Amino acid sequence: MPKNGYTDIIKNILNVKGIDVRLGCSFEDLKENFQHIFYTGPIDRYFEFRLGRLGYRTLDFERFVDDGDHQGTAVINYCDEEVPYTRISEHKHFAPWEQENFSKTVCFREYSRLAGENDIPYYPIRLVNEKKMLEDYITLARTKKNISFMGRLGTYRYLDMDVTIKEALEACDVIDKALQEDNFTLPAFFVDPE
Ligand SMILES: Cc1cc2nc3c(=O)[nH]c(=O)nc-3n(C[C@H](O)[C@H](O)[C@H](O)COP(=O)(O)OP(=O)(O)OC[C@H]3O[C@@H](n4cnc5c(N)ncnc54)[C@H](O)[C@@H]3O)c2cc1C
User: How confident is the model at residue 101 (pLDDT cuts 50, 70, 90)?
Assistant: First the structure.
């Protein structure tokens, strides 16, 4: 976890001049011409699935409330095949500095399954046939001029937060340097997505 939590990071990002947040709209709804796009959506979606759909797993969350303390910690993973959920998160343990003596506790069970077309794509699967399709999407992406594909969905890799943040900071260094040139160009990928 970041030293001061994610809220501080997001607050500081939003305080940067020139940042405009639009909620409840899709990238596809935007009609403006941008000088450069940093795209963090699914790479196959950007190309309207023209080479096929990459595979993802999604999750169904089941909320439940218990008395007192349910499991004594923020997250417990369940790896046994006979247990239908993969983990239980108990949210009050993510904020141990909150000293209130809550009488109730809110938890979520996570059930993992293959993502359908209308599900949120959480985890890139990367089976052999997906790797070939991914290579073709990467080749296509490299033909584009003013867009960089980033993050978990843009590069179709499972990333933890520490890696995501590290890669974003490294990309910022490249962008900073490029912006010092008059006619800057930025790569389609800041990392090797293969
Ligand atoms: C269920 C789950 C649990 C996780 N648990 C952990 C954990 O415990 N520890 C850890 O380190 N990491 C965890 N991760 C991983 C972590 O969440 C990711 O690494 C991180 O969020 C990736 O950041 P990102 O910016 O690449 O992508 P995201 O956080 O997915 O951001 C992409 C954004 O783009 C938006 N977007 C996508 N398509 C469009 C579109 N067409 N138009 C507009 N907006 C769009 C999405 O809504 C989203 O807000 C977990 C991930 C999942 C899915």
Answer: confident
Closest CA to ligand 1's atom 47: 41
Residue 100 has pLDDT above 80, yes or no: no
Lining residues, ligand 1, CB within 6 Å: 26-28, 40-41, 45, 59, 122, 151-153, 159-161, 164
Structural domains in the chain, CATH included, are 5-54+123-179 (3.40.50.720), 57-114 (no CATH)
CA distances in angstroms from 69 to 80, 101, 103, 107, listed in the order given? 23, 10, 8, 10
Closest approach atom of ligand 1 to CA 159: 19
The number of beta carbons lying within 10 Å of the beta carbon of residue 74 is 14
- The rounded Å distance from CA 68 to ligand 1 centre is 30
Average pLDDT for 118-142: 93
| Length in residues, the chain | 194
pLDDT of 102 over the 80 cut: yes
Q: What is 51-117 written as a DSSP string?
A: T-PPPEEEEEEEEEEEES-SSSSSEEE---TTSS-SEEEEGGGG-TT-----SEEEEEEEEEEE--T
